[in-house]
């Protein structure tokens, strides 16, 4: 009568061996493909050696499972229910494709955890879904509803393209901060369908109670305007998730139109009240001071910001190849790259160079003909912050009005365009503001738009042909 003990086989030479494939769920820990050990030259020797050999292999597998569980606990514990479900479903498909026994694999996985009369306990989401999906058809296990944390991850990946060289890391960081703050205020990572208006008010009130820890007004409350901006980001992320997760009208957005200014009892100011255009005297005195006392790069940056209405980060982040001073339509090209992202998609544009801005661009090219960045000193991560701080020191020598800042130069440009009765489309194309209808966003060639905005810019600076 032959041997019926599991994993024993007779070799071609007539001896007996223990041979067992390494379970797939511990293959990353036990890197060999199989256990293979000689048990003896005869059946009697094999039977005598089997118990000890099998016990040693079982212990090795059990230890490997415990090690795998320990290594995966931290990772799987951080996964949301929805992420854990998706990963477990993918893992199940791999096992089916390799014709693994799903029930045995599920039992092996469950055996790695402490047990009570209901089954394994302390199982993190990933392994919990693995076990359930192996023991049941996928259709019987309900797909978890997306949470606010899931919405954030999808927004960063699909909308902000996180990790791309063209993505502004500050925009990504701000989105993370506001969502994490909201989750902290609610005390949980809620399902999108479970967020109530009361939850939204709780988040708003927590944000309004924060104290400034840096910048101007340290020790005072965060402004209502800042809170409004952060709540707008939360609302945008939820709206994006509603579409991408196919939630439709099932989920409302409790952060939409949430009152802030009234609740804050007058804290903060409207967006239009935060900054003023620089009065002519302040503008000229600051300009002269920067040119006389600042570095060459700093003076050229001021002149380009003043003469184009661009954001300071858009100017400091210019590459040499982005500046076109030849032909009848000189301009700068604003687009994202590895050292500078853009605030919005509509910020990607071509801005005409006329008058002093054109002269400043030519001077800048002469200074850095072989460089990658037009302003190497500031063409780096956070370089715009350094340039802004340096220019603000000069501006504060001329004006102490808090509404007078470097960003005021964009308001000066807006005033110039309004005074020459520039069309809204031309103003938005120059300043990089959101365009109106689909026709404005989609139709029309770049050359035609640049020709039109060049005419408008010349009128704004009194340089009509």
UniProtKB/TrEMBL annotation:
Claim: DNA-binding is one of the keywords in the record: yes
PROSITE patterns the record matches: CB, TYR_RECOMBINASE
Domain Core-binding (CB): start-end pairs: 146-242
Cell inner membrane recorded as keyword: no
Biological process terms in GO annotation: DNA integration; DNA recombination
Alphabetical UniProt keywords: DNA integration, DNA recombination, DNA-binding
Residues of the Tyr recombinase domain: 277-457
Family annotation (Pfam families): DUF6538, Phage_integrase
GO MF annotation: an example: DNA binding
Protein name, as recorded: Tyr recombinase domain-containing protein
Annotated source species: Puniceibacterium antarcticum
Organism lineage: Bacteria, Pseudomonadati, Pseudomonadota, Alphaproteobacteria, Rhodobacterales
């Amino acid at each position: 009568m032959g041997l019926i003990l599991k994993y024993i086989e007779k070799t071609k030479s007539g001896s007996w061996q223990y041979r067992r494939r390494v379970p797939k769920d511990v293959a990353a820990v036990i890197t060999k493909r199989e256990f293979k050990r000689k048990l003896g030259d005869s059946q009697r020797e094999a039977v005598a050696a089997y118990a000890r050999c099998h016990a040693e292999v079982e212990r090795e597998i059990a230890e490997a499972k415990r090690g795998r569980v320990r290594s995966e606990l931290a990772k799987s514990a951080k996964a949301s229910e929805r992420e854990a479900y998706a990963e477990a479903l993918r893992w199940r498909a791999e096992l089916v494709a390799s014709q693994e026994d799903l029930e045995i694999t599920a039992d092996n996985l469950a055996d790695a955890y402490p047990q009570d009369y209901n089954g394994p306990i302390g199982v993190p989401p990933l392994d919990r879904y693995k076990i359930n999906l192996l023991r049941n058809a996928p259709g019987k296990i309900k797909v978890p509803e997306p949470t606010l944390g899931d919405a954030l991850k999808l927004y960063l990946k699909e909308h902000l393209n996180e990790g791309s060289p063209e993505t502004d890391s500050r925009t990504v960081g701000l989105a993370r901060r506001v969502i994490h703050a909201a989750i902290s205020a609610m005390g949980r990572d809620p399902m999108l369908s479970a967020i109530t208006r009361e939850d939204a008010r709780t988040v708003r009130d927590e944000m309004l109670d924060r104290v400034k820890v840096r910048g101007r007004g340290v020790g005072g409350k965060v402004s209502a305007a800042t809170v409004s901006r952060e709540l707008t980001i939360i609302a945008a992320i939820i709206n994006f998730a509603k579409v991408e997760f196919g939630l439709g009208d099932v989920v409302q957005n409790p952060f939409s139109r949430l009152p802030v200014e009234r609740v804050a009892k007058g804290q903060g100011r409207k967006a239009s009240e935060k900054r003023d255009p620089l009065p002519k005297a302040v503008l000229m005195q600051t300009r002269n001071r920067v040119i006389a006392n600042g570095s060459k790069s700093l003076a050229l940056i001021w002149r380009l910001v003043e003469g184009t209405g661009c954001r300071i980060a858009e100017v400091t982040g210019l590459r040499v190849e982005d500046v076109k001073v030849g032909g009848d339509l000189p301009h700068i090209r604003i687009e994202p790259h590895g050292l500078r992202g853009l605030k919005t998609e509509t910020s990607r544009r071509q801005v005409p160079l006329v008058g002093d801005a054109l002269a400043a661009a030519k001077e800048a090219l002469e200074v850095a003909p072989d460089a990658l960045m037009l302003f190497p000193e500031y063409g780096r991560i956070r370089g715009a912050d350094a340039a802004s701080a340096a220019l603000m020191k000069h501006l504060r020598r001329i004006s102490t009005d808090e509404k007078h800042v470097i960003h005021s130069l964009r308001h000066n440009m807006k005033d110039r365009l309004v005074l020459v009765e520039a069309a809204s489309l031309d103003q938005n194309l120059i300043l990089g503001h959101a365009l109106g209808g689909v026709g404005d966003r989609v139709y029309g060639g770049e050359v035609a738009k640049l020709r039109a905005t060049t005419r408008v810019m010349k009128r704004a600076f009194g340089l009509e042909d």
